[in-house]
Amino acid sequence: MNIVIMGPPGAGKGTQAEFIKNKYKIPHISTGDMFREAVKKGTPMGKEAQKYMNAGKLVPDQVTIGIVQDRLAEADCQAGFLLDGFPRTIVQAKALDEVLEKTDRKLDAAINIAVPDNILIQRMSGRVSCKECGKVYHLVFSPPAAQGKCDECSGELIQRSDDNAETAANRLQVYNEQTSPLLDYYQDQGLLKNVDGNRDLKAVGSDIEVILDEA
Ligand code: AP5
Ligand code: MG
Ligand code: ZN
To answer: Fewest C-beta atoms under 10 Å: which of 67, 192, 203, 215?
Structure first.
């Protein structure tokens, strides 16, 4: 199963991706996570990407398309994949179509998690994640058992540097301007599946499950 999961910043893409990858046994490919990993390692690509991420802007298409293309060529993606946060522009969506066509693959669904802006701001401002294992929490909606500590590995919980109020607002604006046109792109291909993301995690997850079981 070849899936794209879309939605504005803070919509719950990463949260739902965790459950999808476990249930359907497909790799979760998050371009945001790949960039954060590169930033952490201090690679040249990471240094370049960080400038854009800190401003809430998109990393240039050329860079992003290159890393996704390489990742989709790996063996574990041949039987299916879940792309999270890619594509984010029409140029990226067309590049994805081309890559898949060349390798005789196609998308089965583009899931769009819709959430109103005021809720997105709450989700981003309260998000923390484990410095060690990456597990994501929300201080109000899904808090850890012990304050500041990961339930899984006791690692320190930290806030993402782009979740501050100013950068979060920029990310929302960039989404509305550059990424939301993709909804029409996938609607036209008959692949768009809208999910109401303004409900609890399990309700959103079971809607996605129904969609994917039919895809
Ligand atoms: P990326 O990492 O993709 O960030 P994003 O799209 O802004 O999305 P988020 O990860 O913030 O949100 P999410 O939807 O995953 O929500 P989550 O599940 O964590 O990208 C970061 C940056 O990298 C970009 O700004 C850009 O610079 C660059 N980049 C990445 N991809 C790119 C590309 N293709 N092209 C160019 N540049 C690119 O949930 C959020 C919070 O809400 C959590 O605390 C969670 O616990 C909570 N939550 C989730 N669901 C619910 C629910 N149903 N109810 C209550 N709380 C919930
Ligand atoms: Mg995410
Ligand atoms: Zn942890």
So the answer is: 203
For residues 44 and 37, is the Cβ–Cβ distance under 8 A?
no
The CATH code of the domain that includes 200 is 3.40.50.300
Contact between residue 145 and residue 151 where contact means Cβ atoms under 8 Å apart = yes
* Domain assignment of residue 193, given as a range: 2-26+79-116+173-214
Distances (CA, A) of 94 to 98, 117, 189, 190: 6, 27, 12, 15
Q: Is the pLDDT of residue 39 over 90?
A: yes
Number of domain units in the chain: 1
pLDDT value, residue 25:
96
Is 123 within the bounds of a domain?
Answer: no
Judged by its nearest atom, the ligand closest to the C-alpha of residue 8 is 1
Among candidate residues 21, 88, 123, 193, the one labeled active-site is 88
Q: Is 71 a catalytic residue?
A: no
Q: Which protein residues have their CB within 5 A of the ion that is ligand 3?
A: 130, 132-133, 135, 150, 152-153, 155
User: What is the pTM for the complete model shown?
Assistant: 0.96
Residue 188: inside a domain: yes
206 CA → ligand 1 middle, Å: 20
The residue count of the chain comes to 215
Residue 14 Cα to ligand 2 midpoint, Å, equals: 4
Q: Say what percent of the chain tops pLDDT 70.
A: 100
Terminus-to-terminus CA distance in the chain, angstroms?
A: 8
Domain assignment present for 190: yes
Catalytic residue list contains 127: yes
